[in-house]
Amino acid sequence: MRKHLMQLHPWPAAWYTREVTRPIDDDELASEWHDLMGRYHRITCALDRSLTTEHGLTVSEFEVLQELYSVGPQCEMLRMSELGERVHLSQSAFSRLISRLEQGGLVERAACNEDRRSAMTRITPAGVQRYLEARPTQRAVLHELAREKSADRAEDVAAARVG
Hints:
This protein has helices at 26-55, 59-70, 80-86, 91-103, 125-162, and strands at residues 4-6, 18-20, 78-79, 107-111, 119-123. By secondary structure, the protein is mainly α. It has a domain at 66-134: Arc Repressor Mutant, subunit A, CATH 1.10.10.
């Protein structure tokens, strides 16, 4: 039987990698899904608290700014449809979020020159500044959560050796 490695990100692969030498049963799959959703929820809540408190940004707003920042100067504007595919929101929630960011002066929208049906967006200088100010907070929260997970895993390994 083939061996498969299943990796769940954003943590180092060793934390969430397991060898699968047999088909996974439905209950085990559901349990892993539940664990993944719990980790996602805890990470998102921690990020949201810190980013909102320290920078006045929700985690979703930060994610949009990060995506727009990451396209860099070589791509001045990004299609709204492409940006919408990169963030994890419904179309209506995404549209409301872009409107809030636009009202806050962090992004700009414009009609696409090649296809007037499409809208384009870009991060403004104020958006770049806010993103760069918030990025260390986001990274610090992720590092803290990674350290906590590492400590939890070390305790689990130690308990397994004793037991």
